[in-house]
């Protein structure tokens, strides 16, 4: 038997409800009066007190621009990635389907165009229902909901979640304040402006905010193209996004949709024929998964990271890094980049032939990066890993192609570069020509011993290093070429083409190493670990490739030669605008003539020879081109960096996680071979890629160096027999001459 209620509790409950009813009625009366007649027309102490209380409430609210998603675009305007805290794209009311406008008004606020911010009829009806013990009824107008959404989502966007109050957390004061703000908003904005704002701010479940994002997510269409049943479905979601989520609760969503349609019919916003067809329509969702950040990029996720790091590191986009990241995730930025999707896809496709993502147990890293001469534009940046790879694939956050840090010490997410091997040799050769030597001058490549204390010239520092197996105290191997028979006087031109270590060191012994370092700096070469430091030439082995340089840096440096001596800093950003259309400054390429045109022409002249009968004889292009291969001892790192007149690409293959691990006998191209060099896989990938893409850019011939630089070849004397055939332990490009049919 049910317990009998005590009369005093029944009385108290009734009195409590009555007092609440009277209090709300008084407020409603004041609100009606405040909307309809001047305050001075009211009489009575109660009305005056209520008005004073209400007038003292704040009525200013900065709506501002809602947090909007930012888009990273390729050079052709295609989308690479989206960033957001609240997935939203703001649209004008004119770009929203009339069905959507009518549907949301029909279900949320039928008298929207009649009231001044609050619906007193609805409010009174809700209070009466509550006093009578009926079900709780909603009384919030679209304007009130808009105010509520702005308050909540602004707090969320600013990370002030502790200030957010939902439903039962709100006090009577909070609700009255919202009413006051709604009235003030109606006085400040037109009905259409408020409706537009509401439809752009409101939450539609599944992390979609605003009608444009919801239309895209649920149906793959723009808001202006929503059909009647689609619009009715979305209008039904806003009342309770969890309960009416069409993905999780499709039956609830359809039931609510049909209620919206019934209201639209009752309010004569649609006719019976439209209603009958719409209620019979299937849900027919076409879900477009929401992607957030570079790890979900359509392509080029590491380039995306590089580009967004440029924004996050640049004070032009905000005083602090937190400000800049907030701008990226909430500012509705449109970031147009230099990336060429066709080149990117072609570069990424190369790895399937050598180091595929799903069959690379030895974790052999591979990367391709392309820049455009005379502009500095980064056109492609690909590698054989993913930021967040599925099971069975290699995942790493390191971008193999770029430096660890920018010049201000901010992270770029890069590997910091790798020992470059013989790809560094053209810079010694460039200084050889720059200092007045000629292309066909003879260097004594038969010299293999440089004892401790050898006088290496360096006017801005000290350079050490020895190659001398005869020294009983400081034993060091004699300088080693890949081919024992290649120890004889030779032209500087062919010494570089064949990548002879002895030729490079013989050239350097006649030069000021400080000037070699300056030539490197002029082309953009710097250490990958610290871009503020020049390439280190304190040990002579560095001229054979024992310094770490990032692939992007190598590509940019070679572009200086390909462009006739014009150096451009690499750039990834074309334009950055926010949701209001404001433009932000973007870094420029700062292109300058840093190398004499005749010197650049002389280097290009010889690097073309590399692909004809030099160390890259087996990887020629079908277009005029130059390149340089590179390999370190034990094949830890292997390179080919080369160019046509319109594109420069650096191709690298090696060990990013253990830079001292050799790659000989590792599984590459589904096989294991005992020796891997610069042209084996890095070179083949470069060749295949460049042949596929270079033809859509400038492939004309290069200018010849001046005749004064092309001196006649003087036949050198016969080579003397080598004194020692022991291998050198310094970093070494293992160059195999074409006559022996071996690779670099």
Automatic annotation (TrEMBL):
Pfam families (alphabetical): Transgly, Transpeptidase
Leader peptide range in chain numbering: none
Transmembrane segments: 20-42
Listed GO CC annotations: outer membrane-bounded periplasmic space
GO molecular function: penicillin binding; peptidoglycan glycosyltransferase activity; serine-type D-Ala-D-Ala carboxypeptidase activity
GO BP field: cell wall organization; peptidoglycan biosynthetic process; proteolysis; regulation of cell shape
Positions of the UniProt region annotated as Disordered: 703-744
Stretches assigned to the Penicillin-binding protein transpeptidase domain: 368-636
Catalytic activity: [GlcNAc-(1->4)-Mur2Ac(oyl-L-Ala-gamma-D-Glu-L-Lys-D-Ala-D-Ala)](n)-di-trans,octa-cis-undecaprenyl diphosphate + beta-D-GlcNAc-(1->4)-Mur2Ac(oyl-L-Ala-gamma-D-Glu-L-Lys-D-Ala-D-Ala)-di-trans,octa-cis-undecaprenyl diphosphate = [GlcNAc-(1->4)-Mur2Ac(oyl-L-Ala-gamma-D-Glu-L-Lys-D-Ala-D-Ala)](n+1)-di-trans,octa-cis-undecaprenyl diphosphate + di-trans,octa-cis-undecaprenyl diphosphate + H(+); Preferential cleavage: (Ac)2-L-Lys-D-Ala-|-D-Ala. Also transpeptidation of peptidyl-alanyl moieties that are N-acyl substituents of D-alanine
Keywords from the named record: Carboxypeptidase, Cell shape, Cell wall biogenesis/degradation, Glycosyltransferase, Hydrolase, Membrane, Multifunctional enzyme, Peptidoglycan synthesis, Protease, Transferase, Transmembrane, Transmembrane helix
Biased composition (Basic and acidic residues): 724-735
Protein's UniProt keywords contain rRNA processing: no
Residue ranges constituting the Glycosyl transferase family domain according to the UniProt record: 77-264
PANTHER family reported for this sequence: BINDING PROTEIN TRANSPEPTIDASE, PUTATIVE-RELATED, PEPTIDOGLYCAN GLYCOSYLTRANSFERASE
Family recorded in the similarity comment: In the N-terminal section; belongs to the glycosyltransferase 51 family. In the C-terminal section; belongs to the transpeptidase family.
Protein name as it appears in the record: Glycosyl transferase
Organism: Arthrobacter livingstonensis
């Amino acid at each position: 038997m049910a317990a009998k209620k005590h009369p005093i509790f029944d009385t108290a409950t009734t009195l409590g409800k009555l007092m609440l009813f009277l209090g709300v009625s008084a407020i409603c009366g004041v609100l009606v009066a405040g909307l309809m007649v001047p305050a001075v027309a009211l009489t009575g102490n109660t009305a005056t007190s209520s008005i004073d209380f209400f007038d003292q409430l704040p009525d200013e609210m900065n709506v501002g621009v809602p947090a909007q998603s930012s888009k990273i675009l390729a050079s052709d305007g295609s989308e690479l990635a989206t960033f957001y805290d609240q997935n939203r794209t703001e649209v004008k009311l004119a770009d929203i389907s009339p069905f959507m406008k009518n549907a949301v008004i029909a279900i949320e606020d039928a008298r929207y165009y009649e009231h001044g911010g609050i619906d007193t009829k609805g409010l009174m009806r809700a209070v009466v229902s509550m006093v009578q013990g009926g079900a709780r009824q909603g009384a919030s107008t679209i304007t009130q909901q808009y105010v509520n959404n702005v308050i909540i989502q602004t707090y969320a966007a600013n990370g002030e979640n502790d200030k957010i109050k939902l439903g039962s957390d709100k006090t009577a004061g909070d609700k009255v304040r919202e009413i006051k703000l709604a009235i003030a908003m109606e006085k400040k904005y037109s009905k259409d402006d408020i409706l537009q704002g509401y439809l752009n701010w409101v939450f539609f479940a599944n992390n979609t905010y605003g009608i444009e994002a919801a239309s895209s997510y649920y149906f793959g269409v723009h808001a202006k193209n929503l059909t009647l049943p689609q619009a009715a479905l979305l209008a039904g979601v806003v009342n309770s996004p969890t309960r009416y989520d069409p993905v999780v609760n499709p039956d609830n969503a359809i039931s609510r949709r049909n209620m919206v349609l019934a209201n639209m019919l009752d309010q004569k916003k649609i006719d019976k024929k439209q209603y009958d067809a719409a209620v019979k329509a299937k849900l027919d969702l076409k879900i477009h998964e929401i992607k957030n950040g570079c790890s979900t990029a359509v392509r080029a996720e590491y380039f995306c990271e590089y580009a967004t790091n440029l924004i996050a590191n640049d004070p032009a986009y905000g005083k602090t890094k937190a400000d800049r990241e907030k701008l990226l995730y909430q500012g509705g930025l449109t970031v147009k980049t230099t990336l060429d999707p066709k080149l990117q896809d072609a570069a990424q496709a190369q790895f399937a032939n050598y180091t595929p993502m799903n069959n690379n147990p030895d974790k052999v890293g591979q990367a391709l990066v392309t820049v455009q001469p005379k502009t500095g534009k980064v056109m492609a940046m690909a590698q054989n890993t993913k930021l967040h790879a599925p099971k069975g694939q290699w995942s790493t956050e390191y971008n193999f192609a770029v430096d660890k840090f920018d010049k201000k010490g901010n992270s770029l997410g890069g590997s910091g570069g790798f020992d470059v091997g013989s790809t560094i040799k053209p810079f010694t050769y460039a200084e050889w020509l720059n200092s007045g030597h000629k292309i066909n001058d003879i260097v004594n490549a038969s010299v293999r011993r440089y004892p401790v204390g050898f006088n290496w010239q360096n006017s801005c520092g000290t350079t050490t290093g020895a190659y001398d197996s005869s020294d009983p105290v400081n034993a060091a191997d004699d300088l080693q070429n890949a081919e024992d028979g290649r120890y004889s006087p030779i032209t500087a031109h062919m010494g570089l083409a064949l990548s002879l270590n002895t030729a490079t060191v013989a050239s350097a012994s006649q030069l000021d190493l400080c000037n070699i370092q300056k030539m490197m700096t002029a082309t953009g070469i710097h250490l990958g670990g610290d871009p503020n430091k020049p390439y280190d030439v304190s040990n002579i082995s560095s001229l054979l490739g024992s310094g770490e340089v990032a692939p992007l840096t190598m590509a940019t440096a070679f572009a200086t030669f390909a462009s006739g001596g014009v150096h451009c800093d690499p750039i990834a950003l074309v334009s950055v605008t926010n949701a209001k259309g404001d433009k932000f400054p973007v870094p420029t390429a700062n292109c300058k003539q840093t190398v004499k045109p005749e010197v650049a022409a002389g280097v290009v002249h010889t690097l073309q020879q590399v692909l004809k009968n030099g160390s890259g004889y087996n990887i020629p292009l079908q277009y005029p081109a130059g390149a340089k291969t590179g390999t370190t001892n034990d094949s830890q790192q292997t390179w080919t960096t080369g160019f046509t007149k319109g594109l420069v690409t650096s191709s690298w293959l090696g060990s990013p996680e253990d830079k001292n691990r050799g790659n000989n006998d590792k599984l590459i191209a589904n096989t294991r071979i005992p020796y891997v060099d610069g042209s084996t896989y890095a070179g083949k990938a470069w060749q295949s890629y460049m042949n596929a893409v270079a033809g859509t850019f400038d492939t004309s011939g290069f200018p010849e160096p001046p005749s004064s630089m092309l001196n006649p070849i003087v036949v050198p004397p016969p080579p003397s027999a080598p004194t020692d055939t022991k291998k050198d332990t310094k970093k070494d490009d293992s160059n195999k001459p074409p006559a022996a049919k071996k690779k670099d």
